[in-house]
Design a protein that fits this description.
heterodimer, A: alpha/beta, Rossmann fold, six-stranded mixed β-sheet, B: mainly alpha, about 75% helix, about 0% strand
């Protein structure tokens, strides 16, 4: 099936995720879609698979313009998508998941469907026990189940969104074999990834996206250098933080192992000194957040130790981490960072700790006004935080961090801010580091990472590699994020 | 905020009340009862004579106390359905203490100690809900509901067993306490000002605590966004536990009032909480969690409850009609608020 996308536009609030993307994919090919975090890949694929409807633009399948109102309609017309996190039902059995979304039958012929599942799975060398619970499967097996399910529904175009982030090498090989086999059978496969090696070895053609636009198209003998250029633009930025005087160790991670339901970070050792800024880079969900949360005391490591300012903090409650003078800033502003129904002054009063029973509102309002000036927040002490704009909420979040923490842990500290405020925030943060604060921050902006950090920890499927920023170029960083130097 | 409250919320609440009254009128008409007749019966049943008004005030006090407690748990985002059981346990503890001490201490001391026992009994029962939630992952709605049943069964056991009336032992209750252990009323007006003053003080203290103390602010933060509150360093578990305890204590005090109040039956009997806890949930919902508004609303609910007692006496109607009107009121307000927020979302 031939897939054409014409002039696709999709906007989320202030973010133009897709800005006029035109793309054509030949039937029976394995087509790569390459780009950094936030380049617009996932959005584009969600448009193609009916999860999102475009603001503007046209989808054509086999030269016919079509319009989906739901993923089910897309599947009915032959387009299915495998999401980064499997959209299945962990509480159900494999066979039940397999049957979900299949054409309506009043009474299910379980025997027949079991045979069908087994046949399909065998054809691709997948091993799936129909009676196993999905919650007991690995991410790789859940992907296999989803692929088999989509194929059983008659999908001709299969989209895979970053399928290799959380699966084993073995599972990856069996996935790649299956994908090649599918194209041989005439199906079209779109492989979305930020991993250069995988795209190079697997795809016959690749389209590169950056900032919501197509920045290049190439057949797959294209050298890596060219691809990185398409992904990151002209390679100019170079790390400049070379001579930073560092103090004593603030954070020490010893052989730390962490895991959540999809990912494992193993045996990580890292030392961060007073005044140092360490950026955490990599595709979102490669383990950065696990490490940051463990350092904040929000995630208990399965092995290894965490030291903060020479104190062993492993396994201690979050409260102890706060008392050890850490500041943690979550990415989800209104979910975890702020309380929408409370005013700025109330937020200030909430973070004040003291023996007094009653709140000193005069003081809280005064402090709020002070932070408003200091952080250039457009609002009053009595403004409800939920009524502030996104950028001002971000500034509020920063203003609520402890005033002189030993260790600052931040997820996307400047996301949603304009250049000027970004500069301003970093000036404030740098002033803190001069007083000895160590900073660990996650960012998906390679330039910010390179410019602001002394070192960058690059995450790739749970593995970590350190990189010195002094003299490093955006190109070097891009290559590493794409997987160079791992495995 | 206040301007917006007066301009937008109040007209909506009035619309909701009118909607509730007209829906109730429809139901009455279907039952071929004249709505005007029924409403005026309820009104005269509540305010027709000083004695009737005294009954309304007697019902108002426990309702105020329960509402004050629920303002705390609602602020923390908790559905403390277990408040009925907390009222019962307050009454049980108060009764137990009075039985032990009534012959050895002066009456005023017994009354005072019984009040403390009521506070304690309710608080313990409330914290049990909190403990089940924290350590057993039992949602407070189910935990509270279960504990309500247990508290109810415990009263029946006590009444028929250890605390039974000499020689009788019926479910009509324990031996009534002597008038020296009643809260003092007036000669022709059987309501004690102490009850109402306690209730009003409770509402006022809760209002101030929620607005002006660190504890109150933390509770509201937990209620609005538990995750963010936790990340800001709020000791969420401890604060929720305290909220349950505080609500239970106030409910327990209501239980004490139900034993020693001027117009009470002065003994422990099954279902002593008489739904005051549940009714208070409706009060607080209707007041939109605003302490100030729960004062007049609880008063009118007390009036409707007491006034509708006249229906069976005068017209062979069931007094549960009052409950229908109260339920209609709350549902209308919730529906109108729900529709309003949907509109706002569409506009936004």
């Amino acid at each position: 099936m031939k897939v054409e996308l014409k002039d696709i536009h999709k906007r989320f609030g202030p973010i133009q995720a897709n800005d006029g993307i035109t793309l054509s994919i030949e039937p029976g090919t394995l087509h790569g879609l390459l780009g950094e975090n936030g380049a617009g890949k996932s959005t584009l694929m969600k448009v193609l698979s009916g999860f999102l409807s475009p603001d503007r633009g046209e989808i054509r399948l086999d030269n016919k313009t079509i319009r989906f109102d739901s993923p089910a309609e897309a599947v009915a017309l032959g387009v299915g998508m495998l999401h980064q996190d499997p959209l299945d039902f962990p509480a159900l059995r494999v066979i039940d998941n397999f049957l979900l979304g299949s054409p309506r039958e009043f009474l299910l012929d379980r025997k027949y469907h079991q045979t069908r599942l087994a046949e399909l799975a065998n054809r691709f060398g997948f091993r799936l026990d129909p009676e196993a619970r999905v919650s007991e499967l690995s991410i790789g097996e859940r992907q296999q189940l989803e692929i088999v399910r989509l194929l059983a529904l008659g999908v001709n175009v299969l989209i895979l969104d970053e399928p290799t982030t959380a699966i084993s090498t073995q599972q990856r090989e069996s996935l790649f074999r299956a994908l090649s086999q599918l194209t041989e059978e005439g199906k079209t496969v779109i492989f979305v990834s930020h991993k250069l090696d995988e795209v190079k070895s697997l795809c016959s053609k690749v389209t590169v996206l950056a900032h919501g636009r197509v920045t290049g198209e190439a057949a797959m003998d294209c050298p890596t250098k060219e691809l990185v250029k398409m992904m990151f633009g002209q390679v100019l930025t170079v790390g400049k933080r070379c001579e930073v005087r560092l103090g004593e160790p603030i954070l020490e991670l010893q052989n730390l192992s962490l895991s959540d339901w999809r990912l494992e970070v193993k045996d990580l050792s890292l030392k961060v000194q007073a005044g140092e800024v360490v950026g955490l880079a990599g595709l979102e969900g490669s383990g950065q957040q696990l490490v940051l949360r463990a350092c904040a005391g929000l995630l208990r490591p399965s092995a290894g130790r965490i030291w903060i300012a020479h104190r062993d903090m492993t396994g201690r409650p979050y409260q102890d981490f706060i008392e050890a003078s850490i500041g943690y800033m979550p990415a989800a502003r209104l979910e975890e960072g702020l309380i929408a129904g409370m005013t700025l002054a109330e937020h200030i009063a909430l973070t004040e700790r003291g023996p007094s029973l009653f709140i000193d509102w005069t003081m809280a309002v005064e402090r709020a006004s002070q932070r408003i000036r200091e952080f250039n927040i457009k609002g009053q002490p009595t403004t409800f935080v939920g009524n502030l704009s996104g950028g001002n909420q971000q500034r509020t979040l920063l203003s609520l961090l402890p005033s002189q923490p030993k260790l600052l842990l931040m997820e996307h500290p400047t996301r949603g801010l304009d250049m000027e405020s970004m500069e301003y925030i970093w000036r404030l943060l740098q002033a803190l580091t001069q007083q000895g604060t160590a900073i660990l921050f996650i960012s998906s902006d390679p330039e910010e990472l390179l410019e602001r950090s002394d070192r960058i920890a690059i995450f790739f499927g749970g593995k970590v590699r350190m990189m010195d920023t002094c003299g490093a170029s955006l190109f070097d960083l891009g290559e590493s994020i794409g997987g160079k130097g791992f495995e | 905020m206040n301007k917006e409250f007066i301009r937008r919320i109040i007209p909506l609440q009035i619309a909701a009340i009118l909607l509730a009254l007209s829906l109730s009128a429809v139901i009455l008409t279907i039952l071929s009862i004249s709505p005007i007749d029924a409403f005026s019966l309820i009104l005269s049943g509540a305010f027709g004579s000083p004695a009737k008004l005294a009954y309304v005030l007697t019902a108002w006090a426990p309702l105020l106390l329960c509402s004050a407690g629920l303002l705390v748990t609602f602020a923390a985002g908790l559905w403390n359905i277990g408040i009925e059981g907390q009222v019962v346990m307050g009454a049980v503890f108060a009764t137990g203490l009075m039985r032990i001490l009534q012959d050895s201490l002066p009456p005023s001391a017994v009354l005072l100690l019984a009040a403390l026992a009521g506070l304690l009994g309710g608080a313990l029962w409330g914290m049990l809900v909190g403990g089940l939630r924290r350590y057993g992952s039992v949602n407070e709605i189910f935990g509270g509901l279960g504990l309500n049943f247990i508290a109810g069964s415990l009263t029946v056991y006590l009444i028929l067993g250890p605390w039974k009336r000499p020689g009788i032992g019926s479910t009509s209750g324990t031996e009534p306490f002597p008038p020296s252990l009643w809260l003092p009323g007036f000669k022709d007006f059987q309501a004690s000002p102490i009850e109402m003053i306690l209730g009003l003080i409770a509402i006022a203290s809760v209002a101030i605590a929620l607005r002006d103390t660190h504890f109150g602010l933390r509770l509201r933060a937990v209620g609005m966004n538990m995750k963010a509150a936790f990340l800001k360093g709020v000791p969420v578990d401890q604060d929720l536990f305290l909220a349950f305890g505080l609500c239970g204590a106030l409910a327990g005090l209501a239980g004490w009032v139900l034993i020693v109040g001027t117009s009470a039956r002065h003994n422990l009997y099954p279902l002593i909480s008489s739904g005051y806890g549940y009714l208070a949930i409706l009060v607080v919902l209707l007041a939109n969690l605003k302490p100030f508004w729960s004062v007049p609303i609880s008063f009118s609910f007390a009036a409707i409850s007491m006034g509708s007692l006249q229906l069976p006496l005068q017209r062979q109607l069931d007094s549960s009609l009052g409950g229908v009107i109260q339920g209609m009121l709350v549902l209308s307000v919730l529906v109108i608020n729900g529709i309003r927020s949907r509109w706002l979302r569409h506009e936004g």
